[in-house]
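Checklist before submission:
- one chain only
- standard amino acids only
- sequence pasted in full

Submission:
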Amino acid sequence: MKRFKIIYLCLAGTFLLLSSVAFAQKIDLKMMTGPMGGSWYPLGGAIADSVQRDIPGVTLAVAPGGGVANVEAIELGKCEIGFSNSSSGVDGFYGRPPFKEKMTNMRQLANLYPQYFQIVVLEGSGIKSVADLKGKVISPGPKGHTGEFAARQVLEIYGLSYKDMAKVQHVGYTDTVALMKDGHCDGWLFTTTIPGASVMDLASARKIRLISLPDDKIKEMQKLNAGYIRRLIPKGTYHGVDYDVHGFGFFTHLIISAKLPDDLVYKITKTIVKDLPRLGDIVKDMKGVTAKDLAMDIGIPFHPGALKYYKEVGAL
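Returned file contents:
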């Protein structure tokens, strides 16, 4: 009887040990992406699927967010992974506006693809310059998004602010397209890839015009943030836009909490690199991206786990 009791206790102890190990390996993570209708949300979903498939015990929930808000979310522990833009990431790391202090918990995970700041108006609006937006209804995107902050800066270099507008609609891509189709919004200032699916949707229903920024205004933007890079939207990118559009942009990148274990971040980085071809099918600008591109230095320290993987594969 005593012998069976000992065996029972051993088996029970083994079961508890295995259960505790399994429990310890279960990790619930959250990723903040971008608004519905943009490229970040579906790309984030694809990355989450890959991570959950390749790393046992890890769940990765995806939620909408914004370039500025996601940096703050990681700092405050509201999420562990986030999409952002290089300009916002660098501003956050150094504690420059719109951030009130340095974001010390944020680390670089991967550089992804270029983003383009775009100013879209209806062809018949008579708007041919940012200056013409005065007294109009504009949609610069939800507050907390990098594009919204950049929109304010663009207005600023023209001596304008939201107070000079008839109305400011802080809504996402889908709602903005609906407003413009109905003639309830005059100007759309935002950042996304090219061609942007939402812009293509609008261009299929209404004749649109894209506003260029002159060289001196692009230089003024670069003085406000060295992370702004000159961008050209080639003619023919959108239906009816048969001219090149000059402006600026930055890079989309993935940021991650410094508090995550090195081994876990190593595995996440490896999974993203492994699935690059599939991610390119979701966002055109990801096609052809390599591990070396992901490891590009944009001025934010890499998480040690990501750095280890990039060095192993010769990307750094």
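Reviewer check: Strands lie at 27-32, 58-63, 81-85, 106-122, 137-139, 167-168, 187-192, 208-210, 229-233, 245-257.
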